[in-house]
Amino acid sequence: MRTILYSDLFDYPLTPEEISHYLIGVACDSETVRARLAAPVWLQGRIARVDGYVTLAGREGIVRKRRERARCSNKIWHRARAFVRILSCLPFVRMVGVTGALSMDNSNEGDDVDVIIVTAPNRVWMVRAISLMIVYAGRLGHSTLCPNYLLSEEVLPLQQRNIYIAHEFVQMVPLYGLVVYERMRAANPWIEVILPNAREPFHPRAEYNPGVVGRVMKGLMERCLSGRLGDRFEAWEMRRKLRKFRPQLMKSGGSAVLSKDQVKGHFEDHGKHVRETYDLRLKEFSLMGTAYVQDPPPPEAILVSG
Q1: Cα–Cα distance measured from residue 116 to residue 173, given in angstroms and rounded to the nearest whole number
Q2: Structural domain boundaries, residue 115
């Protein structure tokens, strides 16, 4: 029920296989999950089955919503793959993964393509600046790329550790840099405590690597920008953006992290709202509260000066 309740926050009914994959806090095989659903005891009357999906009782209408969003997502994936191909050719980009609603085929028409980007050390701000050029180009074609989280290979262990971050990570669809993706998984073993069955992406997609021309261009750009020129641009861009974002960073309630190794521009903490709402839903069903939620890092972990 905890697993179904969490997914319901996003109007997203689950198949039995998905319930098994995203089962919260319990390592369990899919056959056992199917057996529990086929002969419910405590769940009887609290859940419903519709065309192979499991929903909360009274929430059967979200099955239609999931199907509509899946159709929209299929169109957006075409743009997402094109974005990833371009991003993979950028200097110092080591991994690209699609996150957010699209990673679950749960996007509405016109939604952004959210991505996480892992960069080489000391090149987070440079990669962000270059990737923004692709963002602006995409807007001209009515396609919106949103590189909402960039981090260096040196900080693969995630700072925030809670059910929302765990879900966002395991739902991520890595499309470039699978070796780095595996390193990132290994650096965050706490995720398996919350979601022990989700050891692999549920919907893996083919990896997109730069072609010969892309690899040559990437290598040349990295060679040109690896020395003092790149270091100076990196430092200048970080100082410039920190000055710009300082007023937003000083406001409470956000989850933004801006440092030499990370750029996470979430000035409004959507994850906090999700966790608080989830907690309330658990209490409605007399279920355990925040056992699988940890507090975010203290404010001093956020860099607000150059």
Answers
A1: 10
A2: 66-264
